[in-house]
Amino acid sequence: MASVSELTNTEFEGFIKEGVVLVDFFAEWCMPCVMMGPIVDELSEKYKGKIKFGKINIEDNQPLAQKYKVSSIPNFVLFKDGKVLEQFIGSMSTEDFEEKLNEYLK
Questions:
Q1: Edge-to-edge strand order for the sheet containing 75-80?
Q2: CB–CB of 22/102 below 8 Å?
Q3: Which domain holds residue 33?
Q4: Where are the alpha helices (DSSP H) in the chain?
Q5: Can you give the CATH number for the domain in which 59 is found?
Q6: What is the mean pLDDT of residues 100-106?
Q7: CA-wise closest residue to 21 among 67, 52, 61
Q8: What is the pLDDT of residue 95?
Q9: Total domains present in the chain
């Protein structure tokens, strides 16, 4: 299974510029983030071609975390053409996550 690519500050703007994009803001030391990893990977397979998935390590990318007001993690920001549609905080089940994503694909 393809894992979700980790983005850097420099790649970020280009990555979120077009289409629907979900970015997972995480940290290696955050257990809920680690638990969400496989769910995010699974969803990235399921929504291939509809939603692009990327992740940002907040330890390495503090300015981005601040820009999107990421204070608690895991923190998922959904973008459309570079604009924030929604922000989800905390861990959730695959089903709940899919429900949230599906609202934006109608």
A1: 5-6, 51-57, 20-26, 75-80, 83-89
A2: no
A3: 5-103
A4: 9-16, 31-46, 62-67, 94-103
A5: 3.40.30.10
A6: 90
A7: 52
A8: 96
A9: 1
The set of residues, in sequence order, having a beta carbon less than 8 Å from that of 75 and lying 6+ positions away, is: 24, 25, 26, 68, 87, 88, 89
At position 81, the amino acid (one-letter code) is D
Residue with tokens 């071609």: 49
Please report the pLDDT score of residue 2 as a whole number: 54
Please write the tens of the pLDDT for every residue from 1-24: 456 989 988 899 999 999 999 999
Beta-carbon contacts of 2 under 8 Å, excluding residues fewer than 6 positions away, are 41, 44, 45
| Residues involved in catalysis | 30, 33
The dihedrals phi and psi of 74, each to the nearest 5 degrees, come to -65, 145
pTM for the predicted model, two decimal places? 0.94
Per DSSP, 106 falls in state: -
Question: Which pair of structure tokens corresponds to residue 24?
Answer: 């997972």
> pLDDT tens digit string along 27-82?
999 999 999 999 999 999 999 999 999 999 999 999 999 999 999 999 999 999 99
